[in-house]
Amino acid sequence: MTAPQDAAVPPGAQAAPQDVRVGVIGVGRMGADHVERLSQRTKGARVSVLSDYARETAEKVSATAPGSRVVDTWQEVVAAEDVDAVLIASPGQFHREQVLACIDAGKPVLCEKPLAMNPADAFDVVRAEHEAGAQLVSLGFMRRFDAGYGQLKDALEAGELGTPLLLNCKHRNADVLPGFSDTHMVYDSAVHEIDAISFFLDEPATSVQTIVPRTTEKAPEGLHDPLLFVFRTASGTVVTDELWVSTNSGYEVRTELVGSKGAATVGQESGMVTTQQAGSRWGGSVPVDFRPRFIAAYDAEVQAWVAAVADGSNIAPRSATAWDGYVAAAVCEAAEQPLTADGTVDVTLQERPA
Ligand SMILES: NC(=O)c1ccc[n+]([C@@H]2O[C@H](COP(=O)([O-])OP(=O)(O)OC[C@H]3O[C@@H](n4cnc5c(N)ncnc54)[C@H](O)[C@@H]3O)[C@@H](O)[C@H]2O)c1
Prior knowledge:
2 domains; Dihydrodipicolinate Reductase, domain 2; seven-stranded mixed beta sheet; Rossmann fold; alpha/beta
């Protein structure tokens, strides 16, 4: 697909004939968000077709995206002639099959994380893309498009921080949905820091130790919260991830890189800082959940993907690929094991296709 970007067409304006026509699969919380950003804030794209397991949900979301139509099944989205590229925001257990169908159809796809529910299934996607001989799969690790992440990556690439020695990550949520388990701690939350390892260090974790401190009384029954993960890479960088998901305060993601020439921290956004005379309090506020914190990153991710589809490269610079999704699945699998057995677990990776 070679539709040129037209800077003169503001996002949200009348659809232009050269727009990338995006089909969206799954329009729950994330999918509806993506439909809104594609329709309102993304240059050079429009939502043409969408589907959801719940037809009523699909109809409601379609009504917010001018010119879109609803089909009954995700297979119809992939096959539709008026779909140039597909965005998948269904639950993770469907991703493997849906991404494979996009590869089969030769259509670029942006799939929300995870790529699949286990490393073997994720590697099926890596293999299929390799056999198709075309790079088609982008994975929605949106933090790669966060301004702070970008600045830290730029500083590393420019050599300003020297050799990376330590990467310290903190990830906090106000609370979690009912049913959130230790497995979700790894696969839904820590997975973002696991991808940060690949992003910042250009190498995956080769081992992981999962440490279980005493649990906060605010944690839902059965959840070990907080958790501390210690990862190592082949070149010797150590990565810590302190994950605490029932803070009862707000959503915070902070990342500190300690390098041989200096340290840098991102994610300390404070917005407005106030002094309140009542109570002699000084301070700012934190967002309640991840969406306001990362809205600009999601916007940038989707815009960069649309531009890559339009220029035929299909995968935006710095985007996570199918390989990154496979690495994340393999590291998550290793990170979950020490929850039930103390010690360090090695990460096993298949050879990367050339
Ligand atoms: N990148 C991030 O930070 C981030 C944040 C939240 C969620 N996610 C990911 O986005 C995906 C969706 O999460 P969500 O929070 O929107 O979930 P959700 O439950 O709100 O929405 C999922 C939607 O998919 C529909 N659906 C179910 N099976 C389907 C199928 N086979 N085909 C089409 N639609 C189907 C459901 O009816 C629902 O409307 C998950 O993979 C999740 O991990 C990513």
